Structure formats: C-alpha cells, structure tokens
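User: Before I run my own analysis I want an independent prediction to cross-check against. Here's the chain; please return only the structure tokens and, at the end, one sentence I can use as a sanity check.
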Amino acid sequence: MFHRMFPELHVSDCEAAARFFENALGYRRGYTLIENGHLDFAVMEHHNAGLQLTLHQMMPASESGKPRDVRLYYEPRDIHALIGKLRAHGFAVSDPEQTEYGATTAHMAGPDGYMIWFQQWDRSEVVD
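Assistant: Structure tokens:
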C-alpha cells in the first residue's frame, strides 16, 4: 500500500536543523528551497534506503525550546558504538539504559525541542 513514510519537522532555523541532522546522524541534503536568501525547506536523506525526513522553517523562534509531542526513534546496529561516536563529536547523549521490555535505549536533544531516541533490541528478545 505504501512505498515509505517520512516525517516533516517544523523548525525555527532550517539551516541549523539541517546541519544537526548532517553532523549528528549522517543525513545529506536532497531537494532544498531557498526563500529570501535563507534555507526554508530541506529534504534530508540518509544513506540507508528509505530513511528520509523533511525540515520546514515554519516554527516561530519563540516556540523553539518547547518540548515536542513527537519523538524520532532510530534502531542502530550497535547502540554503544553510536553513543561513543556521537559523544566524540561533541553531542550530549544519555547513558544507555536497559528497559523492562528487552531493549537498550538512549536519547539526545535535537533541534527545536525534538527528542532523538535510539533503541536496540536485545537479540534474544527479537522474534522474526
């Protein structure tokens, strides 16, 4: 029925948000739209097929620091290696925590109050 799904995040500074997703999580810019000399819209693509998100500068700066009702979850192959890499590049990531439901999680703050979560299932808990 669907080919894929991708979120559109409303941000207060599209350029800063694009740099965050490039530097922290390895996205690249696809289609971009410049309005009045500023980046207004960016389709961010990841080298993993199907991973895409859109950034759109539609949020007033006064809303920037407020928590969002959306969390972005990523499932890394090696959560400990990812946390180490992010920390080595200066990103503040929580310590990994074991959950009651059989996964290890960690999180970090993204642009404009969006939370980025990482969750790796314990392989003994995964059922195919």
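Sanity check: The beta strands are 8-11, 28-35, 38-45, 52-57, 71-74, 97-98, 103-109, 115-121.
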